[in-house]
């Protein structure tokens, strides 16, 4: 090996030694011949003939070294670099085309890799599962005790809490965690300890575990925070641990213990089976996901009888275990895979264009390749040279493409919707670099093989001394047509997808949200619990809370530019809803398991001006007013969808409903029916249980004065204003601070901004796919134009002869245009057939349009046909303007 490397790096010295040694052999042999009486000239000729030729002998010696392949490869690479310098315009076009493909595909793969492919930062994360379609604390306790296939941990997202530490109060995202959760995930704290079983027992001392981000942001990363109290909602909680920086489950700021009271008192039973708990399981050694599913279907359905009220007959039958990564990623997977597929399609089209360019260049190099073949180059040698030339270009494109992809990724991340998970995991890592190299090598081979094979065939042709062919050889014409047709078909598929997504976005934008979003501003206020509510475990509103809200509305209503103001526990596109079951008077009582509970999302409470400020239409009955007080009959307003679901065409006005709470719970009389409101999405909504609900949500509204329970999520201000939202935000903070400096103001946004945020993902998807489709359409048109234009250039003399013999210019035009039309129609047919299959995968991303919508496909076909014919007409017009005399004289 040492000798091999020495031979490899001493090539010039070895060549000099070889030349000297062989010449010495020739001269010695010639001298022997001269001494035998042969003339000096004949002696040298006979000596060279005996050796077989000096250069041939050198080649044999080089082969014996074992470094010939490496040396030839190095010379091929050097030759390729010289080619780049000799034809900078041509190769710049090729490289820029490939850089565009490598950069776009690499940046998009980086996103897909970070969100979908990279393992979660947990020990053996492939064994972690999430329990879907069931999530009650009672179910969690039963599964934790009886499951034989997995170890379970539980958590539950909680209401945001205010951190008060002497300065401006800060709202924190909070989650409740069982003591087993961190063990199941296999993630120890970087500082301190995790929750222990005694931390999650009723009556335990209040403790908290911080996220790494909050530790750095609010406490400067000081280790002294350990065992120190922080005040959350007025309650001091001792910091016992800090989680690692890459622990981003739920993206929460603090974790507090999930305390589940399993005692057998009525209130504990309701708490156990009414409150939610998300479950994470770790499959035990040797257990498959299917086994965990089977166990869930055995354990969960019988728990239906443990609930203190009737549950649906199919309860628990859909309980399933899904990979935790899949649960975290959610429904963003189809969007990202669509974007990656679109980028790959554009990359293939770019490769096809480059292959056509190199095929064209290969035809212009026929004479050069024929000369090399005549002097001894084999077909294998020629193919290897051209492939290495292509790979050299691919490597250059890879280096530049990765550099461009870094900048492109930063731009794309800035455009990503806020609801895309695991954004912090998106980076250019080893996997992404390997993808970039792989794409570059594959594309290099892809666009280099076809021209190389053509070169191997053409090298055997008698090109030496021959004039340039007046027409394309049939195999080359066929290859060019196939490539152009393929890229046009891919363009059709992308344009069809973009058109469907565009129509879906237009349909979303046309949806009536049910309220007037213009000049509307919402903001969240979180009055501290210890000041405005009775103590835990059932905090109720104190009189000071009502006084605070009344004073706040009065002060804000008097602010400059404010037309009207209201408050409620939720606002469209700006708040959380909670759900509740309820009974309907005169129907079987579900509390006795004789009937089924009705369900609704509850928007409670709200001040009398709530619907008026939002601009929501009252369809029946009356709105809330100041007569709806705590000492008067309980009343409610329901949405049209709820009225239709449970009363049909009968008016619900005057009917009474009752929320759970036993026989002492008050009946609530329905006094109005309001128009439906879109609360979270203009398209598909989800109800409080997380189930998809197409159309509008079923909603119950109750008046502010008749609500008694404290909402830890705070109160939403709804302001109709003529003022600048930024100025209004400053006024809001100033007014709130003057009333209570410990009440944080957050999430100030306009109504239009809330709707726009809900449309961020479909807008982002439609925008990117449209950009890729436009690129594909342009490249497809260029491909058709390039094939026909080059064909016209090669057939100039043919057209000249035909025109000289009496053919009309229109005949030439029809011939070339017909060839282009055939390419376009075939590509269009293949593309539409592929689109009919591919767009079915878009069904989850579409709204108001079918994935095989005939109108969209007809419009796409018409546009693509027009583009293809235009691309064909330009070279056809050039062909019919050929001057026969000039063309034949040039020949």
Structure characteristics:
891 residues; alpha+beta; 5 domains; 6-stranded mixed barrel; 28 helices; 52% helix; elongated
Verbal overview:
The protein has 891 residues and is α+β, with helices and mostly antiparallel strands. Helices cover 52% and strands 15% of the residues. α6 packs antiparallel against α13 (333-364) and α13 packs antiparallel against α17. The chain contains 28 helices and 23 strands. It has five domains: 2-66; 68-123 and 333-466, no CATH class; 134-318, no CATH class; 473-511 and 757-891, no CATH class; 520-756, no CATH class. Residues 459-464, 466-472 and 687-696 have low confidence and may be disordered. The strands form four sheets. A six-stranded mixed barrel has the order 2-3-8-5-7-6. β2 and β3 form a beta hairpin. It is elongated and about 135 Å long. The chain starts with a helix and ends with a helix.
Gist of the model:
The chain is of the alpha+beta class.
Shape: elongated
Number of helices: 28
Q: Structural class per helix/strand content?
A: alpha+beta
Report the uncertain regions: 459-464, 466-472, 687-696
User: What's the main sheet like?
Assistant: 6 strands, mixed, barrel
Radius of gyration: 38 Å
Question: What is the typical, i.e. mean, pLDDT?
Answer: 82
Say how many strands there are.
23
With strands numbered from the N-terminus, the spatial order across the biggest sheet is 2-3-8-5-7-6
């Amino acid at each position: 090996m040492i000798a091999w490397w020495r031979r490899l790096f001493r090539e010039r010295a070895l060549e000099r030694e070889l030349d000297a040694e062989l010449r010495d052999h020739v001269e010695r042999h010639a001298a022997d011949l001269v001494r035998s009486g042969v003339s000096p000239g004949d002696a040298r000729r006979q000596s060279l003939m005996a050796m077989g030729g000096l250069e041939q002998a050198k080649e044999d010696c080089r082969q014996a070294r074992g470094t010939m392949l490496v040396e030839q490869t190095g010379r091929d690479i050097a030759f390729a670099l010289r080619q780049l310098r000799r034809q900078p315009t041509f190769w710049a076009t090729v490289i820029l085309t490939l850089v565009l493909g490598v950069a776009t595909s690499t940046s998009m793969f980086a996103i897909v890799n970070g969100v979908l492919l990279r393992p979660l930062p947990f020990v053996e994360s492939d064994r972690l599962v999430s329990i879907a379609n069931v999530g009650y604390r009672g179910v969690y306790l039963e599964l934790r005790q009886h499951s034989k296939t997995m170890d379970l941990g539980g958590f539950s997202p909680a209401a945001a809490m205010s951190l008060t530490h002497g300065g401006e109060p800060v709202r924190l995202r909070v989650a409740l965690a069982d003591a087993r959760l961190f063990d199941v995930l296999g993630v120890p704290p970087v500082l301190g300890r995790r929750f222990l079983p005694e931390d999650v027992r009723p009556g335990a001392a209040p403790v908290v575990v911080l996220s790494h981000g909050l530790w750095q942001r609010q406490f400067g990363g000081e280790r002294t925070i350990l065992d120190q109290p922080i005040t959350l909602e007025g309650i001091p909680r001792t910091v016992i641990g800090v989680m690692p920086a890459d622990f981003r489950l739920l993206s929460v700021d603090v974790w507090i213990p999930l305390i589940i009271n399993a005692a057998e008192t009525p209130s504990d039973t309701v708490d156990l089976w009414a409150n939610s708990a998300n479950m994470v399981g770790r499959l035990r050694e040797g257990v498959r996901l299917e086994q965990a599913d089977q166990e869930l279907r055995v354990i969960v359905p019988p728990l239906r009888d443990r609930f203190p009220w009737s549950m649906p007959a199919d309860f628990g039958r859909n309980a399933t275990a899904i990979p935790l990564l899949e649960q975290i990623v959610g429904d963003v997977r189809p969007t990202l895979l669509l974007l990656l597929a679109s980028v790959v399609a554009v990359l293939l089209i770019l490769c096809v264009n480059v292959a056509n360019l190199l095929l064209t260049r290969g035809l212009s190099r026929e004479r050069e390749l024929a000369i090399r073949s005549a002097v001894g180059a084999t077909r294998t040698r020629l193919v290897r040279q051209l492939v290495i030339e292509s790979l050299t270009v691919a490597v250059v494109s890879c280096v530049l493409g990765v550099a461009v992809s870094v900048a492109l990724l930063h731009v794309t991340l800035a455009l990503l919707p806020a609801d895309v998970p695991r954004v912090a995991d998106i980076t250019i890592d080893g996997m992404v670099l390997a993808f970039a190299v792989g794409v570059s090598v594959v594309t290099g081979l892809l666009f280099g093989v076809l021209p190389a094979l053509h070169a191997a065939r053409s090298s055997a042709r008698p090109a030496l001394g021959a004039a340039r062919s007046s027409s394309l050889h049939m195999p080359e014409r066929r290859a060019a047509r196939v490539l152009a047709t393929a890229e046009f078909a891919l363009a059709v598929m992308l344009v069809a997808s973009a058109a469907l997504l565009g129509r879906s976005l237009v349909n979303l934008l046309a949806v009536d949200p049910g309220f007037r979003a213009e000049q509307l501003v919402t903001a969240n206020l979180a009055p501290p619990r210890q000041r405005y509510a009775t103590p835990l475990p059932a905090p109720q509103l104190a009189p000071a809370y009502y006084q605070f809200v009344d004073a706040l509305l009065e002060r804000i209503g008097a602010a400059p530019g404010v037309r009207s103001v209201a408050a409620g526990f939720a606002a469209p596109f700006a708040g959380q809803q909670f759900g509740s079951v309820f009974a309907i008077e005169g129907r079987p009582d579900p509390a006795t398991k004789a009937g089924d509970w009705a369900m609704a999302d509850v928007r409670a409470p709200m001040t009398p001006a709530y619907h008026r400020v939002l601009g929501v239409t009252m369809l029946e009955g009356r709105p809330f007013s100041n007569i709806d007080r705590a000492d008067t009959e309980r009343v409610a307003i329901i949405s049209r969808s709820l009225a239709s679901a449970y009363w049909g065409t009968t008016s619900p006005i005057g009917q009474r409903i009752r929320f759970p709470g036993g026989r002492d719970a008050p009946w609530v009389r329905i006094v109005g029916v309001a128009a439906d409101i879109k609360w979270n999405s203009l398209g598909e909504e989800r109800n409080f249980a997380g189930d998809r609900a197409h159309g509008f949500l079923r909603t119950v509204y109750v008046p502010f004065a008749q609500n008694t329970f404290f909402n830890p999520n705070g109160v939403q201000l709804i302001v109709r204003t003529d003022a600048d939202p930024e100025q209004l935000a400053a006024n809001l903070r100033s007014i709130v601070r003057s009333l209570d400096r410990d009440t944080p103001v957050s999430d100030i946004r306009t109504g239009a901004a809330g709707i726009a945020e809900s449309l961020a993902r479909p807008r982002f998807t439609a925008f990117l796919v449209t950009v890729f489709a436009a690129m594909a359409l342009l490249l497809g048109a260029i491909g058709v134009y390039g094939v026909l234009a080059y064909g016209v250039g090669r057939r100039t003399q043919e057209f000249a002869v035909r025109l000289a013999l009496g053919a009309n210019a229109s005949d030439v035009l029809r011939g070339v245009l017909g060839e282009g039309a055939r390419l376009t129609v075939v590509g269009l047919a293949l593309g539409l057939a592929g689109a009919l299959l591919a767009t079915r995968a878009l069904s989850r991303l579409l709204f108001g349009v079918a994935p095989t919508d005939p109108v969209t496909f007809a419009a796409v076909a018409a546009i693509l046909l027009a583009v293809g014919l235009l691309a064909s007409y330009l070279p056809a017009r050039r062909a019919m303007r050929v001057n026969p005399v000039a063309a034949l004289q040039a020949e």
